[in-house]
Amino acid sequence: MMIPRIAATDRERFLEEFYHAEQPVVLTGAVQTPATAEEVCEKLNTRIVEDETASQRLLWYDVRRDLLDTICSTPAIVDEMMNPDEAFLRENCVRIWFNPGGHITPWHYDGHSLHVFNLQLKGLKRWTIVAPETPFSCTPFSHTVIKKQPSLDGKRVYEFDLDEGDMLFLPRYWYHYVESHGQMNINVNWVLMPIVHAVPTPTATREAEMMWLKSRLDPMLPAGAKQTLHTYAGVGKPAVDKLTENVTTAAGLARFGKELARVPLWSIALPAHIMKLQALLRTKRLLRNLRGKPISEAAAPEHARVANY
Ligand SMILES: O=C(O)CCC(=O)C(=O)O
Ligand SMILES: [Fe+2]
What we know:
Blueprint: E1 5-7, H1 11-19, E2 25-28, H2 37-50, E3 55-56, E4 61-63, H3 76-81, E5 87-88, E6 94-100, E7 104-108, E8 115-122, E9 125-130, E10 157-162, E11 167-170, E12 175-180, E13 184-194, H4 202-216, H5 223-230, H6 237-244, H7 249-261, H8 270-289, H9 295-298
Helix pairs in contact: 4-6, 4-7
The chain binds 2-oxoglutaric acid (AKG) and fe (ii) ion (FE2).
């Protein structure tokens, strides 16, 4: 299916047809930057390394909004949506991705119930996205799709290219698979969790039930899951309470059974995890070759975290 494309300035249409309906759209002409990919990369690199609050994830960087100040402006529509009265916001609400051509991000949906405004600042990426009402089987208690190349039969799917200056609005719980096609690809994401409840879908229900379960199991959770719970959508408890307020005890407990039933399938997910590690190594190599400035090594090691899609 063809994804709708509208001008980034078409505010009314965006809000009515896409944002509130939680439907994806490509917003065109969001931001242009005349600098080359190498120049943008070097400038961002320097700022990330200098900024103590920037944190390195497995495949991207989490940074504060103002880190972008000298690189690109925030599109007006994004600025309007990053409103603390209507969204849970994290301090580091911008993610930056540097991906070499050939990089593949395996199928997953984003954690923390995040809406993502994904600006293709440099390069080109090919996206395949699937609606949360036609879900994939995920690794138990996580957001990674079990199969590396799941069948798209019966799914509501969009395949499209995201070119320089395009910004994808990817609503929460949409599954995605992304190939990097430019020689050097740089993406800027603004992320937020809306305070209103999600459009009801099986994936939204799963996320709410999983977080209900994790909040009840808090003392027993492994460190990674505890960290997600306590920092959910940047605020922890208020966001989890909102997300789980309609989850019944019966549904939360049933979720435990449903996730456990998939444990034997866990090993099938191994290729996706190996792909993630390979991608990390490729990205590190690319950045090391960039005028001898290795972003990933230059960033303070204590900022390093493990990926959590
Ligand atoms: O750009 C990519 O390769 C992946 C992007 C992604 O997963 C996201 O923005 O949530
Ligand atoms: Fe993602």
